[in-house]
């Protein structure tokens, strides 16, 4: 699984780093992805973060 953040859509709510701290971190006012590929044992958290993001800014494939 890969994950990206739509930096225009992100409102910096801070939720995704709370849910998946191994994958997301805050960089100023927006979140950023800190891994190239999501480790298998973090995929569930990333999916949960994507579903919880208030602006649907987390894109997965
Ligand atoms: S949950 Fe969505 S809006 Fe909130 S910081 Fe993460 S990407 Fe941005």
Describe the structure.
The chain has 61 residues and is of the alpha+beta class. It has a single domain (3-60), classed as Alpha-Beta Plaits. Helices cover 25% and strands 23% of the residues. It contains two helices and four strands; from the N terminus they run E-H-E-E-H-E. The protein has helices spanning 15-19, 43-52, and strands spanning 3-5, 24-27, 30-33, 58-60. The strands form two sheets. It has a two-stranded antiparallel ribbon with strand order 1-4. It binds iron/sulfur cluster. Iron/sulfur cluster binds at residues 5, 10-16, 31, 53-55, 57-58. Iron/sulfur cluster is lined by residues 5, 10-16, 31, 53-55, 57-58.
Features of this protein?
single chain; two-stranded antiparallel sheet; binds iron/sulfur cluster; 61 residues; alpha+beta; Alpha-Beta Plaits; 2 helices
């Amino acid at each position: 699984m890969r994950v990206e953040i739509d930096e225009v859509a992100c409102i910096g709510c801070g939720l995704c780093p709370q849910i998946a701290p191994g994958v997301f971190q805050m960089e100023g006012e927006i979140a950023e992805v800190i891994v190239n590929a999501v480790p298998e044992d973090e995929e569930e958290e990333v999916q949960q973060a994507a579903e919880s993001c208030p602006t649907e800014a987390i894109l997965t494939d």
